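Aim 2, interim progress: modelling of the magnesium ion-bound target.
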Amino acid sequence: MAVEQKTVTAMEAVESNPLNLIWTDLDIELKTYAKEHHVPIIVDEGLALLEQIIRISKPKHILEIGTAIGYSATRMARICGSQITTIERNQEMIQIAKKTFQKSGYESQIRLIECDALEAFEFVKDASFDLIFIDAAKAQYTKFFEIYTPLLTSHGIVVSDNMSFHGLVNKDDYEAQSRSVRGLIRKLAGYQEYLLKNPNYDTSIFELGDGVAISVKKD
Ligand code: SAH
Ligand code: MG
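Predicted structure of the complex, ligand included:
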C-alpha cells in the first residue's frame, strides 16, 4: 500500500511538470506580464527544448533576434554562462528588458542592441555566434537568417521559434484567415522550405511548443 502510494505520487509529479522547468520569482513576474499584455514570449515546451539544446551544445555566444521583455534572454543566460547578444527595436520592450536584465543578476552577460534587426548587422559583425535564436517578426525570418548566419561558428545552431505561428501554418482553414495572416503563413511556409532545402544546414522542424525549427550548420 505504501509502495503503491509512493508510485502514484511520483507519477503525479511527473505528469504535472514533465518539462522539469524551474521558475524564479522574476520568471513568474515576466510570464504574468506577458500574459496580461499579450507579449508573445516563448511557450514552456519550446523553452525546455531550447534550454536542452544549450545544455548539450554549451554555446559561448548566443545571438537572439527579438528580445521582448527579456524573458528568453535571461533564461538562456542562466544555463551555462553563455554571453547573450539580443536585438530589439520596440522602445517599450527595450525599457522593460533593461529592467529585467538588471533584476536578473545576469546583466554583465547580456548585451542589448536597440535597433531593427534588419539594420543591426554592423553592431555585431565582429562577433561570432555558436547559436542564433530567431524570434522576431515572422515575415522576415529568411532575411534574419541570411543576414546573421555568416557569423555562425562551425557546426553552429539556428533555432527558429513560432514555426506554427500559433497553430496557423499549414492549417486547413487557411482561406478563412485574414489577408495579412495568410501573407504571414505563406512567408513562414516559405522560410520552412528555405531551411529544409538549404544545402548547408541540417534542419528538422518540430511541432512542439509553437513549432520550433532546429538547423545545424554542416561544417
Ligand atoms: N524572445 C522573446 C520573445 C520575442 S517576441 C521571448 O521568448 O521571451 C518578438 C519581439 O521581436 C517583439 O518584442 C518585437 O518588437 C521584436 N521584433 C520584431 N521584429 C523585429 C525586428 N525587425 N528587429 C528587432 N526586433 C524585432
Ligand atoms: Mg517566439
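The mean pLDDT is 94. The first helix runs from residue 2 to 16.
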